[in-house]
Amino acid sequence: MLWDAQTENGEALLSRWQLEFSPPHGGAARPLEDPYVSRRPIRLSAARFGGIRVECTRTGTRVIANDDWISEDRVFLGVEVERGVVLVLAERLALLLHNFEGCAGEDELPSFGLVGGSALMLRLRREVRSVAADTRPVLLRGEAGTGKKAVARAIHRAGRADRPYVTIRDATAATIPDLLARAAGGTLLLDALDEVGTEFQAELRRALDGEARDVRILATVTDHRSCASSPGPLFERSDAQALEVPALGKRRDDVGRLVYHFLGAALGELAAGSRLADPGPFSPPWLPVRLVASLAGHDWPRNVGQLRRVAQQLACDHHDKPHVDVGPDLEELLEGKAASAVGWSRTASDRRAPRPGRWFGSISETELLSALRAHRWQAEPAAAHLGVSPEALFAMIEKYSERSQRRKGPRRSPPPF
Q1: For 248, which of 76, 154, 243, 303 could close a Cys bridge (C-beta 3.0–4.6 Å)?
Q2: Whether residue 49 is found in the same domain as residue 119
Q3: Is residue 53 classed exposed, middle or buried when 0-12, 13-18 and 19+ CB atoms within 10 A define those classes?
Q4: Which residue has the higher pLDDT, 75 or 208?
Q5: Which of 338-362 are b and which e, b meaning 16 or more Cβ less than 10 Å from the residue's Cβ?
Q6: Is residue 135 part of a domain?
Q7: Could you list the residue range(s) of the whole structural domain that residue 47 is in?
Q8: CATH at residue 69
Q9: Is 415 among the domain residues?
Q10: Does 49 lie in the same domain as 16?
Q11: Is there a single domain that holds both residue 92 and residue 21?
């Protein structure tokens, strides 16, 4: 943190040896120590109304801010800082200037499997910890692609990790006894609650008020606005809780962490995890810094889901190359219109289309991986190829991932940023 929000005359010097940065997973703070960053500092100072002045007149470091070269000095307004100003230093390092509201004790706050260190994610993780020990139902609201199901899994992991976790969608009242039996003592996630009929919700509520009191109910909504006032009988209970999952555009400082997290996972599947290793000061990195800056500056209208697909596309297209070279196709890649970007977005009619009827239990792990690789890790075309629904595809991925973890034992994940 450069200076406190109440500081009117805050100032910081940024150079090769000045201003220390802490690693994302803890450890001692250290300066940049990059030989391409000048010893003569860039001066950062507080400006009026929450702005920041960046002075580059005396430094030998080339500074690019939001794709614009700064040759002398520039004042960024408070609204720009609120959104986040992306700085690229010497074509080697990408930094984000933004407002951050930290809190005491955040270093001891578990991640619960959620990637991100922004103020909004820290608040969400505190809320996850708060509701995890409870038994009341929780409704997860947020825009499409924000990661509501990942938050539901985090709540389960924080409170009932050793018990069953069952996800359902498009269920009927007749299946309730079987669902509650499978989730006994654990968690039942109702995915897309706004697509579930009130009859199902009312019947499930009666069961929960009866003999199935030990099942924790979580639910997500595909359109958080439609359920803002009346989510249905199940959540009309006075003890129901709601969590808001923030959009990616509101936590821009998490973009870099998520990019490296998703790239690490995708490259690992392709046996190319070493691509993200530091090549040293005299070799270009596999992932160009200007590309990272472009990703950090993008608005991400489809949130984390869109970012994950972009990272998977980059890994699939460039894992066997010395570095990522997107060039003029970057905009098409970000919008999901690249040549190999099949089935990136799903419309409401897509979600309600008739589902394929193949039983996913008959699909082997090898067949699943082959289909995913053939369709460049895109869920919809891979599911259509296998003859199952996208939800069944994700269930298979989760099942085989858990089985693989049990075989191999715990392993360290690559750093998210």
Answers
A1: 303
A2: no
A3: middle
A4: 75
A5: beebebbebeeeeeeeeeeeeebee
A6: yes
A7: 11-97
A8: 2.60.200
A9: no
A10: yes
A11: yes
Q: Indicate whether 5 belongs to any domain.
A: no
Q: What is the pLDDT of residues 182-207, one digit of tens each?
A: 888 899 998 888 777 788 888 888 88
d(CA 152, CA 158): 10
Q: C-alpha dihedral over 380, 383, 389, 394, to 10 degrees?
A: -90
| Tens of pLDDT, residues 56-89 | 988 989 999 988 888 788 999 988 888 889 999 9
CATH number at residue 299: 1.10.8
Claim to verify: residue 204 and residue 231 sit in the same structural domain: yes
**Using a CB cutoff of 8 Å and minimum separation of 24, what contacts does 313-318 make?**
313/338, 313/340, 313/341, 313/376, 313/377, 314/263, 314/266, 314/287, 315/263, 315/266, 315/267, 315/270, 315/272, 316/266, 316/270, 316/340, 316/376, 316/377, 317/376, 318/286
Reported in sequence order, the residue ranges of 193-341 that DSSP labels E, i.e. its strands, are 216-220, 241-244
Give the other-Cβ count within 10 Å of 278's Cβ.
Answer: 7
Phi and psi at residue 249, to the nearest 5°: -65, -20
